[in-house]
Design brief:
Blueprint (H helix, E strand, L loop, with lengths): L4 H14 L4 H20 L7 H14 L4 H20 L16 H16 L4 H20 L10 H9 L6 H20 L28 H9 L6 H16 L3 H6 L5 E2 L4 E5 L6 E5 L2 H13 L27 H10 L12 H14 L4 H8 L4 H4 L7 H7 L8
Antiparallel strand pairs: 1-2, 2-3
Length: about 400
């Protein structure tokens, strides 16, 4: 049963309150929705329409000078209502790139395709990457005054590909591949009458991996020593950083870590990796286990959330998968007086690289390191040989023994 706007906004406000959103946030939404409802009533419309809501937004923007933060908040208020109308739930988050679009048809296509990707069980990072590439395509269409699917032509696609020329080959390949999949989806769903994916060719070439950044054992220890374990937020950070430094876990898997993944009696952590979808079992080392226990007992907000690590501000949800915790590591680097270089990656992933390098220095076989890091193939792990000159020499062929 469809709801009128008054009933819809009331229901959404109740949902926001139940999920722990602050009164200030709810009041801001209410203020905007009340003005929007009056606009709908003046148009003689009783039920929510994304097109009319965006029309109201454009009208308000023309009369009031909004900064980007206010614009994004208003668009979020609109997209929340749109999502709730379709799925009867509050979206966990609104993709920020969507707020850059103005064309209602393109926004609806993004929502539709995003739902398709979720049903396909793609990882959140993959979905985010695909949608960012498609947003780039949509923005190009808007700037080209191409306001409808019916106006798309092969020339439209070719001109978009030309805009990618300034990027590196790997970036071009990623953007082109994501848009190709999107265009193929539109054709298979009969949204477009022509398969425009045909006009996006493949990008050929060799893609060289950059050398991974790594830390010495002393630097890792300096970083850990700089964390104040009496501070609630830093107890959480300490446990997370320790999971990377000692076990090599990816930051996305740490943020997804749930209580059900911790097997205390068996002293192990069992997860399904976000990146590969493969199972991974790691030992629950003593220092890692005590750091997690210390955080849970004395710092973690007392809320019913299955994730181990959560935000410390209402509504106490899990950490955003888009937050790669780079700034978290950098903060403690500054405190530990460790050098920060623009040429060197200093995030969580660099600690994972460091573990791999340390294991190689201890002559752990490559296949065992692959298992620890959760790589599907030893080929992914072999990149770490590039930073270990001694091991490279060990791998070198003795030419005198050939022939």
């Amino acid at each position: 049963m469809k709801q009128n706007l008054h009933e819809l906004t009331k229901a959404v406000l109740n949902e926001l309150e139940a999920s722990g959103h602050s009164k200030l946030t709810r009041d801001n939404f209410r203020y905007f929705w009340n003005g929007m409802t009056r606009y709908f009533e003046n148009r003689g419309v009783d039920e929510f329409s994304l097109e009319i809501a965006m029309e109201y937004f454009e009208q308000r923007s023309s009369k009031t000078e909004f900064n980007n933060r206010n614009k994004n908040f208003i668009k979020r208020a609109i997209f929340i209502l749109d999502h709730y109308t379709q799925y009867s739930e509050i979206p966990l988050r609104i993709y920020k790139p969507v707020t850059k679009l103005k064309n209602v048809q393109y926004i609806e296509l993004m929502n539709l395709y995003g739902k398709h990707l979720l049903e396909g069980e793609y990882s959140p990072m993959t979905i985010e990457s695909y949608l960012c590439s498609i947003i780039k395509f949509m923005q190009f269409l808007e700037k080209s005054n191409c306001s409808s699917i019916e106006e798309w032509t092969s020339e439209t696609i070719f001109k978009f590909i030309e805009t990618l020329a300034e990027y590196k080959k790997l970036t071009i390949r990623n953007h082109a591949g994501a848009v190709r999949l999107f265009l193929r989806y539109l054709y298979f769903e009969n949204i477009t009458s022509q398969d425009f994916s045909y006009f996006i060719g493949t990008v050929k070439g060799t893609y060289h991996h950059s050398l991974p950044s790594f830390w010495t054992k002393n630097e890792v220890q300096q970083l850990l020593d700089a964390i104040d374990q009496n501070n609630p937020n830093e107890k959480r950070d300490y446990a997370m950083i320790l999971l990377v430094a000692r076990l090599g876990m990816r930051s996305c898997d740490i943020k997804n870590l749930k209580f059900e993944n911790l097997y205390w009696r068996e002293n192990k952590i069992v997860i399904i990796q976000s990146k590969t979808g493969e199972p991974l079992t790691l030992p629950l080392l003593k220092d890692v286990g005590w750091a997690i226990i210390d955080y849970i007992q004395y710092s973690r907000p007392k809320v019913d959330n299955p994730h181990v690590f959560i935000k410390h501000l209402p509504p106490y949800t899990e950490l955003s998968y888009k937050n790669h915790l780079y700034k978290t590591v950098e903060k403690y680097m500054v405190r530990a007086k460790l050098p920060i270089s623009a040429k060197k990656r200093n995030g969580m992933h660099s600690l994972r690289h460091s573990l791999a390098t340390t294991l190689m220095e201890e002559n752990i076989p490559l296949n065992e390191i692959s298992n620890i890091l959760g790589h599907k193939s030893s080929d992914s792990t072999s990149i770490y040989l590039n930073v270990d000159v001694k091991r490279l020499r060990d791998c070198a062929i003795d030419v005198s023994k050939l022939g």
